């Protein structure tokens, strides 16, 4: 399983089960990977960077225990909070405790997708889901998978949020919905995979993980259950090499073709190719401080939703109003 997080400017993190690399981590995150005292972290279950150095991280410590932590700039707390703090509803869900004072959440299975400017989110711990202020097509797609009496007919397996209302949804029945016009390389690949499968359910069944960059758009990483991967990352040299180094260590990789050259794309979709297409990010070109270390050992395609126009005042990288929150137990 890969863990990929894109942040602002030169901030990024990538981990496989055996390796990790990162650059320009916020202070709230880097303290757990202390360079002088040694890392407190043996494995990151999930890491998401939010606006203005906010973040959420679920991780396993060197002591074998699981933890989840979050942080935001101190001025969030002392200035009556701001839209760029983590949503209070999300914090409350993550921090929920039972009568004995223990966290309710199943920390190793926490998966959070955080939208632009921390205005939207979808989070699950494998047992319960919680979401707020999702793009209208995604919200509709999730609602279509819910049972009248509770639970899901098909529970969300992957939810990724991007800029301008872009998203990916794949449920546990491998029925999917996506809008990816801001991530054209991934959109092209997914559409070709769908066409190759006759536009039937299950075209994206091999997809195991998707991370979308909500700060710069375009950038993404997607991996398969076989450890293959594809993506665009914010640099054509050192950063790309770092991502490839880590992602090449994903387990159960099958033999895949090597792109003819860096910056090339491929139309082959029997397998995912390696990082085949690179986007230069002006903010990230100056990256020169990457750190590295070792971690411990419905509707078949929802095509109507893909083409649905946003009519509820959505703006680039932001949703103006907060829709009703929703939570559901998949069981």
UniProtKB/TrEMBL annotation:
Tree of life domain: Eukaryota
Protein name: Uncharacterized protein
Annotated source species: Sporothrix eucalyptigena
Lineage, broadest ranks: Eukaryota, Fungi, Dikarya, Ascomycota, Pezizomycotina
